[in-house]
Amino acid sequence: xxxxSSAEESNSSHRxxxxxxKRGYGNDGTTDLPRTADVISKLHPDFVGLQExxxxxxxxGNVDQAQWLGEHLDMHAAFAPFMDYDGGRYGMAILSRxxxxxxxxxxxxxxxEPRVALAAHVTLPDGNKLTLVNVHFDYxxxxxxxxxxxxxxxxxxxxxxxxxxxxxxxxxxxESRTVKLFQDGFVEADKPxxxxxxxxxxxxxxEIDFLFASPESQWTVKTVDVIDEPLASDHRPVIAVLxxxxx
Length: 247
Description:
By secondary structure, the chain is of the alpha+beta class. The protein has helices spanning about 35-40, 65-75, 145-160, 175-180; strands at about 10-20, 45-55, 75-85, 90-95, 100-105, 115-125, 130-135, 165-170, 185-190, 210-215, 220-225, 240-245.
């Protein structure tokens, strides 16, 4: 599903990956962060939004997982904690090929656990600015808090002076009001119709991980793939090639 190349080849394409890594804890019952790194490396992303990341937690061998993955993948890393956990902190991370100029943890409504959205502001090689926003919304069945969290994230992205990419584990499905909130004014990285499911990795039967780009007028989605990776996590990775149009 590669699009036609336009006359404006100053347009910049970016490989963007969303992956709930479950702290490197695989479906074989072992924590294996090098295996997680290998899955990511093979996809050659420019930007990665990671959910369920440990920072020096006992259960994961006291490793600063965001820093470790950044070093092993030769990428810049940012981490935002949700909460203190098991001797360390638990949260989410963004990896970037380009230097991260600034990070923000946008506090969201509290559900079963505390939640933030992690925003990483980067300057692209052509001088354009881009913000990556990584989310992991509340997982309980009642969507009240999840929708409130999504509303706050939408407001944050719409307040930005530059283009943005939103990615993460939405813990909700395409027809939900949480996901529909981003289908207006954003470009959605639509997954292949014959393979849209992102969870569970072993027996995929629902689509809960998403990528969007804003504003709609500045982006083109080139390709989207859900990766068949049944072992490294309970989620499947989603990779999209997004093209930012020239100003």
